[in-house]
## 1
Amino acid sequence: MSPQTPSLSATRNHTLSDAAAAHLDKERLLGRSEATLKTYRGALYRLVAWRAAQGVADSREVTSAHLEAYARTTLERVS
């Protein structure tokens, strides 16, 4: 990864919000359109809110099991 590209692990406080912001910054640097960034932002912040409600705010604590549970919850909501 280049020095100009933020990584999710490079966030200062390791909060999910910081990780989401770093990811959006990376996508912006990659030239994503504003419409794409808006879609990504909405999806990321819904995930951040869901994880915070589950008691996990540190991005280093998120596991694949968390992401799978979020995906199931999201699919149930739209079904």
Note: Helices lie at 16-29, 34-53, 64-78.
## 2
Amino acid sequence: MAPETAAPWISVRVTPTRDAADARRACLAALFRVGAQGVHEDGAALVTHFPPGTDLAAVHEALTSADETVVIETAPVPS
């Protein structure tokens, strides 16, 4: 029997594109509203991780409401 593998956490990298300071604050607030426990600032990008089962459509909706042209990148977190 093969060992069970847990679903990976998801990395979300957000790069605001409109008026930098306002868009960054709005995107940061949106990430916390949808459940981010912490956010790492990586240059212009904001990076966080969400657990398996997170509603990524809700994350996307919150971020695009904060900045309609935000760049959102998602990827599984390597184990």
Note: Strands lie at 10-15, 40-42, 45-50, 71-76.
## 3
Amino acid sequence: MKVSVKNIEKLQVTITWEKVEKASEYTVFWADYDSETMVYEKRYTGTELEYTLNKPTHVPHYFYVEAYEENDVISFID
């Protein structure tokens, strides 16, 4: 399963992902550069299947999503 871009505008990008069976919530992580020392920032935790990042889109953005059942990661989506 992959993270997909639903909408992209000059100052924001919306990503979406498919529902994971048994997931009670999702956490979205974001970074704005790709390197060996890249550190992802937690941007969202909740039950929605999409997230909008309000940042300029003239630079690349990197995301991954974790699905949780209770407090355990049950799926990793990138």
Note: Residues 14 and 52 are 4 Å apart (CA to CA).
## 4
Amino acid sequence: MNAIECYRRAVPLAEAANDRETLAKVLDELGAIHSSLADDVPAAAFTNRALDLYEQQGKDAEVERLRARLEDLGKASKS
């Protein structure tokens, strides 16, 4: 089992437990992994979901970091 599979399995567990902090971290990691693989569509999808959760939690540093990732993904998809 690879990291993507492990994190994907963690998503419904965090959702079922209503653990929004863990869910944000898991989605963030999935976005980062897909970004590192230049798999921009899922990278953006996971990153956007994590960004929404971090915004709800008031985690400004994470919000800024993910906004930067999304900007980088936008630039990568246009090149």
Note: The mean pLDDT is 94.
